Amino acid sequence: MSRLAASLPIYSGSSTFIRWGRTSCPASSDLLYKGSMAGPDLRSSGGGSNYLCLPDDPSYDPQAPKGAVYSFLSSAQYEVRKSSYIFGKRISTVEHYVPCVTCEIQQRASKIMIPAATLCPSDDWVLEYKGYLMTSATHVGSNDDSVIIKGKHSRDSYVCVDGKAEAIPSPAVGDWIQGVTLYAVSASCTGPGALKSSHPYRGATAALSCVVCSK
């Protein structure tokens, strides 16, 4: 070790990540708060382009502005239907709400979500959790499972939903809820905009995996 390296302080900070689809943090991290996933309403074209993990116990500032017009947040729900095999068939997740937790990792400054991966880059990275890449639907039409109806066309985030996902029971299962809907993601391998043929992706036959790693 160089004299300069030896004189530098050992990093003692922390970083955070959201574990989508679960109600507890991995053993390698500490729970900051539990909540549920939310985002822009399907019926609108505005709102944010990212998802939020809303705390289960919100608090309000009494001096907050009060107005007649707001940008509304809606609950997120799984829309995996027959594709629920990606969650191991342990539970039925279709049209149930999506839990989430915000977790803190000590003495590890870097974190990354890697799409289309099942392992971290190397042994010096810690696997926090692995799962499946999910986001809102990208088209109106039909697939092998069901008819996809897309009420808005704004961009949403890609998130890594835990492979052993849990669900918050919805009182309106079977009804179309105009909130945030999560679909599994696959690669486009044919037609306009297809990924380069040199990429070994499987197209619509397989959902893309993902991992969340820290170092």
Quick rundown:
With about 220 residues, this protein is mostly beta strands. The chain is about 0% helix and about 35% strand.
**Uncertain stretches:** 4-9, 140-151
What portion of the residues fall into strands of 2 or more residues? 25-35%
By secondary-structure content and strand pairing, the structural class works out as: mainly beta
Number of strands: 12
Give the averaged pLDDT, no decimals.
79
What would you note in describing this structure?
The structure is a single chain. By secondary structure, the chain is mostly beta strands. It has one domain. 2% of the residues lie in helices and 33% in strands. The chain has one helix at residues 3-7; strands spanning 14-20, 30-40, 52-55, 73-78, 99-106, 111-115, 126-135, 141-142, 147-148, 159-162, 180-184, 209-214. The strands form two sheets. Strands 1, 2, 3, 4, 5, 6, 7, 10, 11 and 12 form a ten-stranded mixed β-sheet that branches. β8 (141-142) and β9 form a beta hairpin. It is globular and about 55 Å long. 26% of the residues are buried.
Q: Any key phrases for this structure?
A:
mainly beta; two-stranded antiparallel sheet; 1 helix
